[in-house]
Amino acid sequence: MKRHIFAVAATLIAPFCFDDARAEDIRVEEEPKSSLTGSVGISSDYMFRGLTQSWGRPVIQGGAEWAAPSGLVAGGSVSGVSEHSYPGGSMELDLYASYGRAVNDDWSWRAGVYGYIYPGANLSKAGLSKRSFNTAEANVAVSWKWFTLKYNRSLTDYFGVDTEQGYRSDSRGLGYFQLDASVPLADDWSVDLHAGHTHYNTTLAQPLPSGAVNPDYSDYGATLKYKFAGHWTASVGVTHATNADFYRNTSSFIQANEFRRAGGTRGFVMLQSAF
């Protein structure tokens, strides 16, 4: 699943210990250790940058991440997706790696690469020219306290967007800007806030029935989270994507007469367990 992660590895310091044999206090500092964390959950809808990836249906998601004290992070995640959006495929596999450091207690930075892989999915499964949906991005981010500003740039065509999908050119070099905040509330409550903008470097060769040709849009979101029973998190969120003329009636790749409101305002609930 597509995740926008801005983690900085923590330093682990052992507490003071007392050596009776020497009858003196000795401070022992352990070497920082790498960590491995993971999660699995179910969501009523898979939203990515304001657009549904599961055609409005529930999905199971999971992932794992390794973090080193040096600032290196690597991980992967999986999620269900809809064949209506990814013909021939039903799963998304994400792989990523990044490096970052803390500047001080408030500021930190991170840069990395992120890959989205859709096993079995291809435009040829919808009767079009052969084209993969696999996408690679480079990203750089800076964080201050609760806030993270991030820029993502596609290194490949953006989820198959090129002339085979009716665009004037390929979409390599597309940019996505995002501003995120994770705000702690009382006790085990928190809220995640998000704003982003997708800027395409191409347009449709022919307008949609609505007259729209430009796929650029902005998206916004808010997610309320509650942690309970040690490692469980329940979330409820709402997202909104602009450019309704372009995304209001998104057609299915596999059923020509089926349409879905991919953007607009959508809500979701999620239950997740961390380990």
TrEMBL record:
Pfam families: Gcw_chp. InterPro entries: CHP02001. It comes from the Bacteria. This is Uncharacterized protein. It comes from Dyella tabacisoli.
